[in-house]
## 1
Amino acid sequence: MSQVASPAPITRLLVVEDDDTIRETVSEAMELEGFAVTAATNGQSAWELLNRERFDLVVLDLMLPGINGLDLCRQLRQTNNPPLILVVSARDTETDRVLGLEVGADDYLTKPFGIRELVARCRALLRRNRSQDPVLANGADSHQVLEHADLQLFRGECRVSRGGEELRLSPKEYKLLELFLQQPRRVWSREQLIEQVWGVDYIGDTKTVDVHIRWLREKIETDPSNPIHLVTVRGFGYRFG
């Protein structure tokens, strides 16, 4: 007797936008794409929703009344298993984009934007996130322990310790460290790291690599400003070990 395949889980999306027209347009479009959409008009109500319910992805405006989008990103980054965050903002300078990524956004889309691009970015973020199972790495032994100096990465348990103390890494930070530990001394360009960790379909800013490298250094280096493990190779990229 054949088994009926289980339906794919519905993606839960939170749209946080104080502009009525944009909020309603985005919500309706994403519902037509099959997302289960909840909307919030300000940062405070969004924060309350995020504390009560589990969302897979947040489409977040930065200029919000009450708690602004940047502060909301910072707060979410401190929680366990935070949702993916796609920032949408009229702020379109390089400094604005880098700041958004630094505080915890996974991608940054400037206004005005097309709905098709928004949908594509959301789907790309979700696809990459679901494909990144840190337990599986090119068929390698999932129980392998990767070590360097006082760092240990336990692949079967998806955890990292430094000097015997467990580190709290995000999935991207974990994947970066795993990649570096697998191939020490290799120099990786930003584009190569994007392809390996974010996926070949990533369409965001490559500066997100620099942001995540900085976060990883804060956790594995004694002096993150003068790293000895994860170093910058000027004009080429990054090397570990």
## 2
Amino acid sequence: MATSETDIRRQKLENLRGAGKDPYPNDFAVTHTAARILDQAAVDPESLGEEGQVFSTAGRLMGVNRFGKAAFFRFKDRTGQIQAYVRRDKLPEEVFALSKDLDMGDFIGVTGPVFKTRAGEWTILATDLKLLAKALRPLPEKFHGLKDPEKRYRQRYLDLIMNPEVRETFVRRSRITAGVREFLASRDFLEVETPMMQVIPGGAEAEPFRTHHNALDMDMYLRIAPELYLKRLVVGGMERVFEINRNFRNEGISTQHNPEFTMLEFYQAYATYEDLMDLTEEMLSSVAADVLGATLITYQGQEIELAPPYRRISLAEALARIGGVAQEDQGDRERLLEIARERGVTLTKTAKIGKILTKLFDALVEPKLIAPTFITHYPVEISPLSRRNAQDPSVVDRFELFIAGRELANGFSELNDPDDQRGRFMDQVRERDAGDAEAHFMDEDYVEALEYGLPPTAGEGIGMDRLVMLLTDAASIREVILFPHMRNADKGSR
């Protein structure tokens, strides 16, 4: 039976232990990152050279070029890659002997001065070398890398090691999230946290995940949205609040959907949905400028300008002008059902006009909205938490933002009339009883909170995963979630 690469590495591990060496020590002090060393070399090369400053840095060994009594070791840390020159006459004999047994993927610590090679590359001349962690499995073959999406998502750690552009995506994701936080904090919004497990899941039309609390002996739900709790805080006098956290919806998996996803929700007292459209334009353009250095981006080959102003058009106008559904037909249920059949749009038998209109919009209009576009004035029957429009009570003061053919944000002036809210909840209960698993639950405690008084307020939710997709040119949501949900593998769920 052939000896595997892992077997060879395990034997090296046992040899180290047999010689009294710890293959996983934790006593190496890093003084500089790779990037900091290279930056200093660029700015102050006079301080370097064999008689110059001594550096200690560490990282994962990614390449080895051995020749005779010397070798070049290329290794990387969180900031980048650097190389070390290992020479027998510069190291104790046992240390040089150790260097010959190092493998790709091992973590090493290197100490020494920095010099420039004949090829012009700044390099650490190793005066000390230490194994910091032995890698027992070989990395994927360098030339082909790690390309299989299934393996990349299930073993994201390998994806991050082998594909630098993947790591850059998640670095950028962190900067985007930080940029959103800074933007809202600078406008006096307070970041808060609300329950992930809720007795009544509310704030969105979605099927929840159910769980059970043993100590309380009661069923609970993973939240589908933080909305109703955030608005309770506004009732309590916290006039500007936001939360960036996870939501859970028991729905399908696609390039745009993951059952566990990150949402930004924020609420502002004494504001309208129009105020939030202005704020959203400012926030997205500001974050893009900070993270990318520009507001003109390219997403999947299409140029998109994120600087304001964005187009604003009502749902009825969009259906007529872009989707080809005449406005005179939009109040005729039978005609809408006929159009849906003609266009291949699937509907339930009991679907009301508001639901039919939005399904037609999803199929006929949404894919065509490439440039940032606010769609406004949604039917009241599909917007149970939104304030009715003063001029046309059949619609609400609501918008959804679409960019690159997909929804990015949903916002509205909040319904703060407790009697109207109770009636809307009752309509949703009837929808649920009729078989709509995504309809809202009745939430008497939330209605009671409204009875204490919710000031005029506007609120909005932005899908952070989709925002990151947009700003990293990612075609699939799985590319921007570190550990996306997947079916069980042969070795079990990961």
## 3
Amino acid sequence: MDLNLLPLLLAVAEEQNFRAAADRLGITRSAVSQGVRRLENATGSQLVMRTTRSVRLTEAGARLVERLRGPLQAIEAALEAHEDVPRGRLRLAVTSIAEEFLSGPLLARFAEAYPQVTLDVTVTDGEFDIVAHGFDAGVRLGEVIEQDMITVPVGGPQREVAAASPTYLAQHGVPKHPRDLLDHRCIGWRPAPNTAPWRWEFEVDGEPFDVMVKPQITTNDLRLMLRTALAHGGITFAPWECMRDHFASGTLVPLLEDFLPSFAGFYLYFPQRQNMAPKLRALIDHVRRRGR
């Protein structure tokens, strides 16, 4: 068996598309297709189901990928750990509300400092195993990160805030208590299509409580939430950092500030590895330097 075909199968499994896998590996689509077929001949099993629009693993293919992923990633990390210069593709899964990480300067300065590292950032709010999906690291709120991960803070404590445009508030009034939100048009957030909108969390005299608003508009896109609020579409609820510039310009007004608790913020997280790749170590050190 040609062992060079194994990383090819992993790329197909992660991209679920021959063309995307080919682009990722820097080879032709036909080379990917032929390589998968050679691997199937070598194993004596059909590993991939092909249609005109998509590619998915068979049960046998999924079992093989699951067994290969860990060892191949360990081999890749061990080889990279022997290099002095950070290089290669660094895959990151970052939540859409991590404003400090996604605002631009942090990644721009990292790219400038490490020109041989290629950053591949997927902005996603889905909860999944980053190792199983082939990512080197992720950025999420600390409260939802698995306990077996290593974490490095990105920024300090956070707090979420309700906000609306002055025009909306002039037309509909200003809520004085979180329960007043039930009488307003709200713009909510959900991480995935089949999940309920997030509850809006507040605090009174140190006691936390939440309000289950019924958003008229719900989305997993933070930009849409802000744009709709800026267009006088209702009251939205998001991290303060994401709306700071709008508060400064007066296009949005913070609401219910006496009821806003702070919470642990965002963290860069990654699995414990005996041989850490220099590219990941470089990102960790970069985030720590910015934090200081």
